[in-house]
Amino acid sequence: MGSFDDRKQAFEKKHAHDAEMVFRATARRNKLLGLWAAERMGRDAEGAAAYAKEIVAAGLSREGDAAVATRRWRSGSAPTSRPPAPRPPTSPPAWRRCRPRPRRRSWPR
């Protein structure tokens, strides 16, 4: 029984470590997004740090990434407030455009 309990504890520690690493990576991503957006908005260093903290705090809410996106794009001085450029029409992949060819036989009929 001892080895099973050790294995269970090791798995729980691994799960806690993985969850912490995901949390740290997400918080760092949100901080860098906030700093980048603040730079694009023309804020000074103190304003950029405060904005980055707001973005990180938005990421900690229940909505997560949706709250970060909402906070970022609904800020009053967002530099990219114009609509995105239209995408060119895409054609179907090459394998859908071509009809399959009949196989050629190597022997005569």
Structure description:
- By secondary structure, the chain is an all-alpha fold.
- It has one domain.
- Helices cover 62% and strands 0% of the residues.
- The protein contains four helices and no strands.
- The protein has helices at 2-41, 45-59, 65-73, 94-97.
- It is flat.
- It starts with a helix and ends in a 12-residue tail after the last helix.
- 10% of the residues are buried.
What's this entry about, in short?
Helix content is 62%, strand content 0%. It has 109 residues and is mostly helical.
Number of domains: 1
Distance between the termini: 73 Å
Number of strands: 0
What gyration radius follows from the Cα positions, in whole Å? 26 Å
What's the pLDDT, averaged over the residues? 78
Shape: flat
Portion in strands: under 5%
- Helix run count: 4
Q: How helix-rich are the residues, as a percent range?
A: 55-70%
Write the layout of secondary structure elements.
Elements: H1 2-41, H2 45-59, H3 65-73, H4 94-97
Helix pairs in contact: 1-2, 2-3
Notable traits:
single chain, 109 residues, mainly alpha, 4 helices, 62% helix, flat
